[in-house]
Design a protein that fits this description.
Blueprint: E1 6-15, E2 18-29, E3 34-36, E4 40-44, E5 60-62, E6 68-70, E7 74-75, H1 83-94, E8 99-101, H2 109-119, E9 127-132, H3 139-153, E10 158-163, H4 171-183, E11 187-193, H5 197-206, E12 213-217, H6 225-233, E13 237-241, H7 253-262, H8 266-276, E14 280-281, H9 288-295, H10 304-311
The protein binds NADP nicotinamide-adenine-dinucleotide phosphate.
Length: about 325
């Protein structure tokens, strides 16, 4: 860090008996001290280890830069371009979803954009995430890829732009491009995906802006406790990809037993577990009934004992590749 540099700061405090989280985004580094330029603060009215738990499908979580991101959204990986993705996004928006997670690599950004347009929901009510693909990483190529994504989506800005995977030797230049897009007002928030702690530490050594989100594979068989703790320590939100283990963990007997107790489905219990852990979640489905079912998770609360039971299922078992060892 150098003198005069703008640095993000996160801290919490009590005022009387009320808990607040203060996010001082615009601090500058002096010779011997940090000057706080601006403080955003928010009262914590529902505590789950120091965060406000979302209470409905439209509810948001506050990112490091003060931007509010819905805590629940629809993922569209492996959803076919054309009718399939258009319909999925329309079902979701009709059901009250505000957040859609796509990527250049999913090759369905145009369909996502078409659905947004056809629903007629004002752009500012939605939260659109897309990602720069590995082959496009690097400074100039990322800027070009971003333009292509916005064109396909038919939007003037993206709410959250992510580096899809930590491509060795490239992700720092890619991050510089994301910082430029952020400073130019073309994205409301920037973040990464599939970054281990060592990738984040390496990135932070040179980054001007701390990534606001890390989207990682996360579900009851891969709970990522240490990485979640690290992200939390630097004010970064964790977002779960494949929260349902791509559908492969829906027959888990322990979660089935918990689900029966609450008269909910296994998918609903897993998604509720995300919410109670302050994990942003983006389950994918192409079926209207499941899109509705997945979001019906705001009328029950898992007990501490049941949360611990699900926490205990961790086997560090991935459905996708380890970010230290991918070849695409
Ligand atoms: N950053 C990354 O590298 C990365 C990687 C993977 C995924 N993601 C993001 O994360 C999102 C979610 O992950 P994912 O798509 O792998 O899988 P997921 O959300 O864990 O699971 C989706 C699978 O479960 C099924 N399903 C959904 N809801 C269900 C329900 N209520 N009951 C029974 N089955 C249900 C779906 O089938 P139907 O569609 O037939 O309902 C689909 O096969 C992706 O769409 C994408 O946006 C990001």
């Amino acid at each position: 860090m150098v003198v005069g540099e703008v640095i993000p700061l996160v801290f919490s405090f009590y005022k009387g008996s009320e808990f607040y989280k203060a996010i001082a985004l615009e601090g500058t580094l002096g010779c011997t001290s940090i000057h706080v330029i601006k403080i955003y603060y928010q009262q914590k009215n529902l505590m789950y280890g120091g965060f406000v738990m979302i209470k409905n499908l439209q509810d948001t979580t506050t990112l490091l830069n003060g931007v509010n991101m819905p805590g629940f959204g629809l993922g569209v990986w492996q959803v076919k371009e054309g009718n399939e993705v258009v319909n999925s996004v329309k079902y979701a928006i009709k059901a009250g979803y505000k957040s859609i997670d796509t990527a250049a690599a999913y090759k369905n950004e145009a369909g996502v954009g078409q659905a947004i347009k056809e629903t007629g929901v004002p752009r500012e009510e939605l939260f659109i995430t897309t990602k720069v693909w590995n082959a496009d990483q690097g400074y100039e190529s990322t800027l070009t890829a971003f333009e292509q994504s916005t064109k396909k989506l038919g939007v003037d800005y993206v709410d959250l732009y992510l580096i899809h995977w930590p491509v060795a030797g490239k992700y720092k230049d890619t991050w510089k491009a994301l910082e430029k897009l952020y400073k130019d007002g073309k994205v409301r928030a920037i973040g990464v995906s599939n970054f281990h702690q060592h990738h984040l530490e390496d990135l932070l050594a040179d980054a001007e802006i701390t990534p606001m989100v890390n989207q990682i594979e996360l579900h009851p068989l891969l709970t990522q406790v240490e990485l979640r703790e690290f992200c939390k320590s630097i004010g970064m939100k964790v977002e779960a990809w494949s929260p349902l283990g791509s559908g492969k963990i829906l027959d888990n007997p322990v979660i089935k037993e918990v689900a029966e107790k609450y008269n909910k489905t296994v998918a609903q219990v897993i998604l509720r577990w995300d919410i109670q852990h302050d994990i942003i979640t983006i389950p994918k489905s192409t079926k209207e009934n499941r899109i509705i079912e997945n979001a019906d998770v705001f009328d029950f609360e898992l007990s501490a004992e049941d949360m611990a039971k699900i926490d205990g299922l961790n086997k560090n078992e991935r459905t996708g590749p380890d970010p230290d060892n991918f070849n695409f």
